Amino acid sequence: MQNSSSSSSLMVKQEFFTKWKKGLKIYSAFNKEMTIMERKRAIKLSADVAIASTRSATTQWSRAVVAEVSSSAAGAARIAAEEILGRKLSTERRKAQAGKKIVRRRRKAAARGAVRSSAAAVAKKVVRNRRRVLKRLIPGWKKLDEICLIKETLDYIASLQVQVDVMRHLANAGETLHHQQILL
Amino acid sequence: MDKQHYLMNAGIPLQIEASMPSPWTSDQSLSMDHHFDSSLTSAAFALRHLIGKLDRSSPAALPSLAADPGFAERAAKFSCFGSRSFNGRTSSPGSATPGQSMSALPRVASSPSLKLNGSPPPRNRKLPSSGANSNEESSVSEQIPSSNSRKRKSASRGKNKDDRSNSAKEAEEDENLKRSKQTQNCENEQECNENKTNQKPPEPPKDYIHVRARRGQATDSHSLAERVRREKISERMKLLQDLVPGCNKVAGKALMLDEIINYVQSLQRQVEFLSMKLASVNPDMDFNMENLLSKDMYQQSTSLPQQMYPLDSSSPAYYHHHQNVQHQLLHGTNISSVDPLPLDATLGIQIDGFAQNLPQQFPAFTEDDLHSIVQMGFIHNSVQNQTSNMKVEL
To answer: Predicted ipTM?
Structure first.
């Protein structure tokens, strides 16, 4: 089981890596002019879009990442994202989908009235708060409900693990090569 | 269940598309809410009877169903599909039609995310309707005839749904949907003693009276749907437990959620940190390292960093040689004509900049090429330079 899981995650890693490289390629022309912060942002954006595209818009968080990039990215970032995704980004769609769940949440909050002070209720409150915190961590959290939250978290964690793994390998290798270069 | 199970999850096929959308497709208008609120009509009794039948059948079936490990997953997906069609009609007109979208396997994973749209909106919409009802004082008798016709419609639709279900799975799914429907009704009925969701609003007495007739039956379906939902959630929490390291030891939702939150935060911070690190280290080495690491990725070796270190002890002459090779490569010479240590060439870091690398590196080095090159390089390494520590598993 471990082998098969590692092989499937390996495929995801390869896909992520390829797409990430694609994105970084776009930036390569600018490399000399970019400050370190800009470079970092470029790397992170390419990585985020790449890992979101491995899910190919099947999950809420990946769609949210792409939507955020498409609405707030400029210039080279946009081109890199489009290159990774293989398609044009649209800028207007976010607002159309934003409305319905907000209404729901407001109504529920208004209607909740009873004060429950039993131990179970306190525990539930704690759990609920934590769920809320967890929800905020996941991109596109506004559109997540309790059940979907867990599924999205699962997917998001798996993708984050892939991302961190690949990036860490790259960083380690780069650091080692850098040290070698310095040594010689 | 581990990562692999989760990543492969989308492969579960679903065949219920035909039957699922129909009862929900017309559930768009706010008037549909009255379906759930109305009672004391013959149609309501008919529906209740239907529900009762399901309830009677389900308690026996449910434990076995719940025992089925795939059941919770299927239930989740089915209900999500139902809600997806629901959502698909309600939300964006640009979204794919349910039939078309559901036939594509990768979309399966997306449907749970839309479950939110499916289940809460029915719940949600009762609120406005209940609010409206509470405002009208004389409404009970008035609403009954109007909701009567709607109730009949929903009952007939429910029956149609049953007719159309072909497999046992679909029947289960219908039960689940009905149960969840009933559950949501019960939520509105102020069945608040067991708070399955934390956002259950107290229902104004008007609607309470409306739905009272259904309440006796609904309790069963309520708890059953509740049980199904809890099964679903616990199943997914188990998956999460496998994914998050250190989650096995803690028991209970709060602690587990705490661990998960910490883990997600740490992963996100790691991404930030690593991207900063790459930005600082990177300018000279970008694509060489990427080619290098493509090898690493293929072999899934986490020992790469450690194996890099033996390179420190390789002879400087060797390394200079690599750099020469690298220069030659940069100038676009044929690889075979160069002293065949191309792997080390990729290790060589004398890269002038991205733009130079790019046209030469990428045509020259696909990952497959690199692989064969590595093989060549390895052989030649051991033969020519007697650097046995050049264990290039790269």
So the answer is: 0.84
